[in-house]
Design goal:
alpha/beta, Lyase, Ornithine Decarboxylase, Chain A, domain 1, 3 domains, 9-stranded mixed sheet, 12 helices
Amino acid sequence: MSVDQGRRLAGRSARPSPDAARERYDQATADLDPPLALVDLGAFDRNAADMTRRAALAGNGGHPVRVATKSLRCRFLIERALATPGYRGVMCYSLAEALWLHATGTSDDLLVAYPSVDRGALRALAADSQARQHVTIMTDSQAHLDVVDRALGDGHPEIRVCLDLDVSWRPLARQPAVHIGTRRSPLHTPEQAADFARAITRRPGFRLVGVMGYEGQIAGLGDAPPGHPVRARLIRLIQGRSMPELVRRRTEAIRRIQALTSLEFVNGGGTGSLESTARDTSVTELTAGSGLVGPTLFDAYRRFSPEPALLFALPVVRRPGPGLATLFSGGYVASGTGTQDRLPRPYLPAGLNLTGTEGAGEVQTPVRGPAAGQLRTGDRVWLRHAKAGELAERFRDYHVLHEDGQLSTVPTYRGEGQCFGLGPPNRHEYRAHAAPAPCRFSSWAAAGRRASPESGVPGASGSLCPEASRMAVLEVAVPGVTVRSIPNGRINRLRSLSVQPWRRRRRPYWCHGSPSRYWTVES
């Protein structure tokens, strides 16, 4: 048995038994009413450490790991991961999210993983000189650059861009229809990547700073799906042949691009491919996120086994028959293929399964199995989500269980009023909430006492947060949207947004800024 196998097995044996884990979770949340979501912080930290260990297995000192924010969608957890040695920067799933995280001081290295055509967000990026230095947007075509130019106009400030390289596997070179992997970039060959990189370098208003390639056929596809041995062998065959090919192709693409311009980073991989991607010498950094919380889709790997660190509890509301218990709510189905592996899975007590006829329901979820007969009305059942970040769209708060048994509560993106998969209520509205680390959240967002800011602007008014000494809310908006501000002197991590005048319709609306305070004018 190798040293790595021994360490992995030792980590597994150190995990508490299912009965002990259930007792600990039940006791910690006894005063809370389910449905509720719980983060086991000890398991989260161990998963974070294990991923950096895997990233260092290539023997090259280890690549830094960029945190995939879509797998967490909770600033407390994102900042917790970034505070772990071996992690650096974040990968966001929308430009609006990147602007928000930059404004809150969560990170100063933000890569947007997908091309953005959000004109409001693009304009906000162009208007913020600080954000332009730290936010990099994704691109894979001239058409996307055209969208940016139309949104920002001629002579717009320089925007940092990253080229998205397709690293899926096409086993039949002359048959591109045979495609194994994610459908992302049209840039598959080194020649295509170099031609587009050349076009970027010749185009004013853009600076090529990085290249990204996500090998989803390895990073996001478990090689040991339970109960499917034939499929498992096929997946291993695909991954074994795909990785050498993509390393050669990515290396050549990077060589050609670096002949045109210098790059700050080459990003690759995901939770499922940290070891193999780290061996690719053309890659300078990795990305991971799901492995921090251990959703059920990541149970199907031989190389690693993350601890379940994110759970949700549902209450038993009825006993419809022997060996059956019905839970309230629970239809938290993951995105993707729509197959059974996207359903949440009962976790504690052990020995429960969803029924084949109802699955996870919108308002009730029946479970069956040996443990169901011992459940009483009012008991709770702990479940795991299939994917890492989507549970945060169902809960406004995560309850965090610390190693010492203490329980704290932190907001998810939803709890902070953010949902980046939907358009904002006003397409010109961007909000930024700021809090110094370590994060301590409270009811500061509630209405505070009124105050008259000394901005010297006629008609100025604002709302002063009652906990201004350690919390701030800064909102930058357009006519019709109230903007609340507070003095900045006692806030350590508040980053400035644009202080340009917002001119809409007939009246100008100003955001006044200085090194010490931000004030605004209400409509």
